[in-house]
Amino acid sequence: QKEVEQDPGPLSVPEGAIVSLNCTYSNSAFQYFMWYRQYSRKGPELLMYTYSSGNKEDGRFTAQVDKSSKYISLFIRDSQPSDSATYLCAMTAGNNRKLIWGLGTSLAVNP
Amino acid sequence: EAQVTQNPRYLITVTGKKLTVTCSQNMNHEYMSWYRQDPGLGLRQIYYSMNVEVTDKGDVPEGYKVSRKEKRNFPLILESPSPNQTSLYFCASRDLGNSPLHFGNGTRLTVT
Question: Tens of pLDDT along A88-108?
Fold first, then answer.
């Protein structure tokens, strides 16, 4: 079993939809959780960064961490065609320990 | 502008011909790392460096070398490339501690 599981999709939604992207993990030591967005032919760019459990909001994006269920989510409200990308989750126990990546979910937002 | 710069962006080579992919960052980051990204396998770490003259193997180091002689540069060397090293390569950097990674825009390598 992988340490981090992420459904690769692809996920296709109409413009304006609410998108929910998820990762599950097995290592209870993980404390730092990240979502990266990767456009085609580009490097991953940090979208959201959260520590421990709870929610964090940034514009149309909300990151949620449920450590009791070992489950993290990224919600995108009012999705736009420009949100079409691959979304990667990543997590670590911190203190310079290894960053563990999900495989990424491919999202297409259709006008 | 804060960035990680990789060169070249695209490279086609033949088996056995030594090549170097350069990586430079202008954020004064101590930590630098190389990843390869393959369909169905995701991002896998090749090597990383926590400071000048300090390098360590990642998950898939076989067939690769790195050096860290200066803080800003972290070249990836393939001394004898093989077709199974055809991949998309990313360099990344960050501060030490719990800072997030900053990525370059990738180098697409094809080995024939």
Answer: 999 999 877 889 999 999 999
CB contact under 8 A, B42 and A34: no
Of A40, A49, A29, the closest CA to residue A90 belongs to: A49
Nearest CB partner across the interface for B100, out of A34, A98, A104: A34
Chain B residues with beta carbon closer than 8 angstroms to that of A32: 98
Tally of CA atoms within 13 A in the half-sphere of A49 that contains its CB = 10
Residue found under tokens 């930590």:
B31
Question: End-to-end distance of chain A based on CA atoms, in angstroms?
Answer: 37
Contact, B65 vs B58, CB < 8 A? no
Cβ atoms < 10 Å from Cβ of B3? 15
Take residue A27 and report the two structure tokens written for it: 């290592």
DSSP codes joined into one string, B17-83: --EEEEEEESS--SEEEEEEEETTTEEEEEEEEEETTEEEE-S--TT-EE--SSSSB--EEESS--G
> How far is B76 from B44, CA to CA, in rounded Å?
14
Q: What pLDDT, on a 0 to 100 scale, did the predictor assign at position A67?
A: 94
Considering only alpha carbons, which residue of chain A is nearest residue B36?
A43
Each residue's pLDDT tens digit, A67-92:
999 999 999 999 999 999 999 999 99
Structure tokens at B106: 């990738």
A–B interface: beta-carbon pairs under 8 A: 44
Query: What is the rounded CA–CA span in Å between residue B66 and residue B10?
Result: 19
> Does B75 have pLDDT greater than 90?
yes
